[in-house]
Amino acid sequence: MSTPLEVRIDRAADGQLVLLAIGEIDASNVAHFAEALNAGTGGDAETLTVDLSGVEYLDSAAINALAPHAESLQIIANPVLMRVLMVSGLTELAKIRPATDT
């Protein structure tokens, strides 16, 4: 059974592309997430903001999907994900900051 995941790409008010993911990212749904990453980073050289503030869990499949695009990503992460992002080494490759409550 697939884990619930909502993914969409929007443009922020400043024109910046934003990939928003909500739910959990794991092997059962990572293909959908990877397709969105490829769509958001393909074509021009602009940076893609990946908003993971609504993601409560991700596994190594998600890290593997993010890693090839890391240098062109700005990631906003749910604070519970920060440890796994640091341990994976992704924080050394991509700009990552924890989401803040507003």
UniProtKB/TrEMBL annotation:
InterPro entries: STAS_dom, STAS_dom_sf. It comes from the Bacteria. Residues 14-102 form the STAS domain. SUPFAM superfamilies: SpoIIaa-like. Signal peptide: none annotated. This is STAS domain-containing protein. It comes from Mycolicibacterium sphagni.
